[in-house]
Specification:
single chain; 159 residues; alpha+beta; 5-stranded mixed beta sheet; two-stranded antiparallel sheet; globular; disordered C terminus
Amino acid sequence: MCIHRLIYKSIATDEVVSNKTLQDLESQATWSNGEKGITGLLMLSGNAFLQVLEGQAHDLTELFGRIMQDRRHQQVELITFEKIFERSFSDWNLRLVDLHDMPGQQRALMSTKYRKSEGNIAIPEELNEVYALLLDARFICLSAPWIAKDSGGNKARSA
């Protein structure tokens, strides 16, 4: 089975960055991504989204088309769309990571490693740095039980 990875960035509208809206977005996307076999991680830093999605090319293309039309996203920019041999984000159908809500030690680590803009971690321009940021966020989510989720993205336990 041939799988692909799609990474994009966008600017969130003001209505999206409320905790309730983000929780609703995560719930809806977890369910719909699960139906299509799509996995990934959605990161929010300030009002900037960075998302990685993995799955069948057709499903990713269809989903990205809907994202581009979604009024909650502005300045949507495709970073990469590539064939991959294995998933790197298979742990969740969708995991939402708000860098602002990370515990202090993890947030401090990310802040020292990545460039900041207006007090938030800036979404990198270089592809290797985008991968690094996404993989760091994945590692922190897997190792930090502050909001552990099962493979479907549902809350599994809390510390």
